[in-house]
Amino acid sequence: MVRLDRVVKTYRSGRTDLHALDGVTLDIAAGEFLSIVGPSGSGKSTLLHLVGGLDAPDSGEVLVGGRSLAEMSDDELTLLRRRRVGLVFQFFNLLPTMTAEENVGLPLLLDGTPASERRERVERALRKVLIWDRRHHTPDAMSGGEMQRVAIARALVIEPAVLLADEPTGNLDSRTGHEILELLRTTASRERQTVLMVTHDASAAEYGDRIITLVDGRIANERRTGRTLAEAAS
C-alpha cells in the first residue's frame, strides 16, 4: 500500500544540512498498523508528511497505492489527501466555530459530496468513534479525548486507504490515550486501513503490528509486536 524507496529529505539550517531522512526504504502493507518511534529530530514527522504529500523528498520515491507521488500534480495531491489519506494531528486542528458534525463533514463538503450522502457518512464516522451524542458541540465544549475522537472521525469520514497519525495521544491522559489507540488498532484490523502512527510513547507503539525506530533519519531498528497481520484481520 505504501512504499518509500531510498528516500532522502534534507533541510538547511544556516550553513548546516539537517538530514531528516537519509536513504529510507520501507514497505507498509494494506491493513498494517505501523508505529514509528525515535528521538526528536529523527525524521518521524517528516516521513508522515512525505507519505501524505505535504512535502516532497529531495531524492528517492514515495508511492501510495502503487503510484508515485512525484508523478502527481498539485491538484492530484490535493485529491489524494481529500480522498485517500486521512490525517490526525496531536493538536486536533478542529475549527473552533464549527460543531463536531460540521468539522467532520468539512472534507466531504470541500469535495462536493451531496448533502444527503454527507450526512450519512458523517453520522457513520461519529458513531464509529462513539461520539455521535456530541455532534452539536463545538470544540470548546469538549474534552481533549472528545476532540481527538472528532479529529479521527474527520480523517475516517473520507474512508481513506491510509491513516496518518502524528502523536495522536500526546495531549491525552493515559486512559483516554488507551481508548484512542484501541480505536486506531480497530481501524487497521477491521477496515483494512493502513495506519502509520508517530509516537514518543513506547507503550503506545506496542499497539502497532510493527515498530520501526528512526535515528538521524535512518531506520535503526525494526521489530514485530505480538500481533501478526493475519491475527489483526481476524
Proportion of residues in β-strands: 25-35%
Helix residue percentage: 25-40%
Count every beta strand, where a strand is a DSSP E run of 2 or more residues. Answer: 10
Instruction: Measure the end-to-end span.
Output: 19 Å
Which structural class should the secondary elements be placed in?
alpha/beta
Rg computed from alpha carbons, rounded to a whole number of angstroms: 17 Å
Low-confidence stretches: 229-234
What is the average per-residue confidence, as pLDDT, rounded to a whole number? Answer: 91
Q: Which series of helices and strands comes N to C?
A: EEEHEEHEHHHEHEHEEH
* Main pleated sheet: 6 strands, mixed
Report on this model:
The longest helix has 18 residues, at 174-191. It is globular and about 50 Å long. Helix 3 (100-110) crosses helix 4, helix 3 runs parallel beside helix 5 and helix 4 packs across helix 5 (144-156). The strands form 2 sheets. Strands 6-7-8-3-9-10 form a 6-stranded mixed β-sheet, sandwiched between helices. A 4-stranded antiparallel β-sheet has the order 2-1-4-5, covered by helices on one side. By secondary structure, it is α/β, with parallel strands linked by helices. 35% of the residues lie in helices and 28% in strands. The protein has helices at 44-51, 74-83, 100-110, 115-128, 144-156, 174-191, 202-205, 229-233; strands at 2-13, 16-28, 33-37, 59-64, 67-68, 85-89, 162-166, 194-198, 210-215, 218-224. Residues 229-234 have low confidence and may be disordered.
